[in-house]
Design goal:
Blueprint (H helix, E strand, L loop, with lengths): L2 H6 L2 E2 L5 E2 L1 E6 L3 E16 L8 E10 L15 E4 L4 E10 L6 E8 H12 L7
Antiparallel strand pairs: 1-2, 3-4, 3-6, 4-5, 5-8, 6-7, 7-8
Length: 129
């Protein structure tokens, strides 16, 4: 799913914000539900030993009100999908709350960016089956 489609697929919430309801099945937390934050983020990290900084567009996903956290360490790489079954992105980072020691927000990279990166580094086409 492309960034543009994600934005166009959002619905207005009770408080007037735009949000897309999503789910994922993670290794640690299993099936969970959340909703996207309406603010896109730029995530910067230095994953390798070469010191090169990587910057990537990501969007935050917050847990639903059921009290179950959307993601936890070990869920990275999980596919994020919408209620129509479309793969929207890949879970890449979990932020832990200092308040209740729960994981309140995760970051996902939109799937079109993931697919472009696969094509760039592996060559050839990339497909979602």
């Amino acid at each position: 799913m492309a960034v543009k489609e994600i934005v166009e697929s959002t619905n207005e919430t009770r408080d007037g914000r735009r949000s897309l309801r999503v789910g994922k099945v993670g290794r640690t937390t299993g099936l969970t539900w959340g909703q996207t934050n309406d603010i896109a983020s730029m995530v910067r990290e230095k994953p390798g030993n070469d010191g090169e900084e990587i910057t990537c567009l990501a969007w935050g996903i917050v847990s639903r009100v059921d009290g179950k956290t959307f993601g936890a360490p070990g869920d990275s790489g999980s596919a994020i999908f919408d209620f129509q079954g479309r793969v929207c992105g890949m879970l890449t980072m979990v932020l832990e709350s200092a308040y209740k020691r729960k994981f309140d927000i995760v970051y996902a990279v939109p799937m079109d960016i993931v697919m472009e990166d696969i094509k760039k580094h592996r060559g050839g086409e990339a497909y979602i089956l």
